[in-house]
C-alpha cells in the first residue's frame, strides 16, 4: 500500500511539473479523436438504417443492367411466298479493353481465332482502351464464335463476350439486289425496299435485366422486362421466276452489245403490280459492299432519260381522244421534213402522204410532230401529266424520280413538236411502263406498286376505251413485217409495241455516237396481260437501233413470261389451234 501511494504521489508531481501547453494539446487531440469516432459511429448508423434503400439502389445500378434484345427482322418474299431476304442468327465478339491483356501470349491466339491481323487487333484495343466495350468481330457464324470463346477460356483470356445478333441473307443475290436493297451491320435497311419499309421489317427490340460482375461482364439473366416483337413479313408483287427471266435476258444483252447499263420493267396490266424489275450492272448484296460505278442504283426507278419514239403512240392517243385526228386521217409528210421556226424536223426518208397507223409503224417524226402541233398545248400537257410523267410515283421506292415535264406555258412550238417523238421530256423506265399499261388497260391508269395487292384499286381514266384499243391495233404494225421491230414478235401471240432510238444529250448537245435503245410493248394485244419496257444505255457494238437491240430482249422476256403464266395465245395458226384444243394434231 505504501509503495502504491508513493507511485501515485510521484506521478502527480510529474504531472504538476508538465507545462500547461502540453496538457492543452493532449486534451485537443483526445477531443478530435472523440469527435471523429462519434462521426464514424453516426455515419455507420446513417448508412445502415436511414440510407439503406438509397445505397442498395446504387449497388443494383452497378451490378444490375438493362440490355436490348434484338428483334428478328421480318422476311421479304415474292408474290408466291418464295423467301427473298431472311435474317439468320449470328454472334459478334466484343471485348472490354480495360480487362483484355495486351501481351502477345493473349492476343496472338485471339487474333488467329478471329482471323484478324495481330497489329490491327492491338491498334483497335489501344484506340478504345478507355472504354468498357468494343466489337472485335461482327456477325460471325455461331460455331465460329463458340470456338473463339472456348479458346478464351482455355487461354484464360479475360474481357471477351459473345452477343447474339442477326445477319441478313439474300438467297437470289444479284437478281433482286436493286429492288430489295440491303441492311447494314446493325441490320438496319440502307437501300431499296429494306430502307423504304425498315420500320415495318425491323420490329421492336426487347429489354432484359442482367447481372454484371465487377468487370462489367454479364454473369446471369435476371428477368425479361419486354419481349422482342419480330418484324412483319413483306410480300412483294414481283415473281421470282419472271425476275430471273428478265435478269438473264438483260444481262446477256448488255454483254452482247457491250452496253453501259440497262433496265427491264414488267407490269401486270390488270393490277398495276410490278412483276419484274432488273438492272445492269448489278451487285451481290451478300458480299462486302463498295459503292462504285453506281451499281447499287435501281436505275429503272431513279434514272430518267428522253423516251424518244416510244412517245409517238401516246401523242396519237391524245389526238384521237380529243377528236383532232381520226383513225383514217391522212398526214402529208412530204418532202420528208418541215420547218418549225429556224428548226427542222425530219424523217429518215420521205414517206409521202400516210395514215396514222403508218406514222407509228414507220416511226415518222414529221407525222408525229404535225399531230402534236395541232393539239392545244395545255391539253397535251394535261394528258401527259395524267399518264404520270413529271409526277411523283406511287411505288414508294427511295429516290423515285419524277422526271421532267415542263409547264405548257414554257413550250415553244419546237418544244411541242419534239415532245411527240420523245425529246424535251424525261421519264423513268417505270413511268414509261405505267403509261403503256394505261393503253393496255383500255385507257385506265392504275397506280403501280412493288407490293402484292389483294385488291385492285380504282384507276383513273386517261383515254377512252375506243382510243386505247385503236392505238393498240396501230402498234401491232410495229412488230409486223415492214415495221421497225419484227424482232419483238412472240410466236402464238399478238404483240403491240413501239421502238425508240434516242441520241443522248451531252455538254455540247446531242451526241452522234451515244444512243439509248428502247422498246415498250404489251401482249397479248387482243386483251393485254403484261407490259414490258426494255432500255439499253449506250450499246457500243455495231447495232444501236431499238428494233435491233431492245426488241429481241422484249421478245425473249415476254415469250417466257406468257407461257409461264399460262396466258392463252391469241395468234395461233389454225393448225396450231387444233393441236392445242385436242392435245394432238388432227388430220
TrEMBL record:
Its EC number is 3.4.16.4. Keywords: Carboxypeptidase, Cell cycle, Cell division, Cell inner membrane, Cell membrane, Cell shape, Cell wall biogenesis/degradation, Glycosyltransferase, Hydrolase, Membrane, Peptidoglycan synthesis, Protease, Septation, Transferase, Transmembrane, Transmembrane helix. GO terms for molecular function: penicillin binding; peptidoglycan glycosyltransferase activity; serine-type D-Ala-D-Ala carboxypeptidase activity. Its main location: membrane. It is found in: Cell inner membrane; Membrane. It is a single-pass membrane protein. Residues 101-121 form the HTH cro/C1-type domain. InterPro entries: Beta-lactam/transpept (IPR050515), Beta-lactam/transpept-like (IPR012338), Cro/C1-type_HTH (IPR001387), FtsI_transpept (IPR037532), PBP_dimer (IPR005311), PBP_dimer_sf (IPR036138), PCN-bd_Tpept (IPR001460). The active site is at 309 (acyl-ester intermediate). This is Peptidoglycan D,D-transpeptidase FtsI. The gene is ftsI.
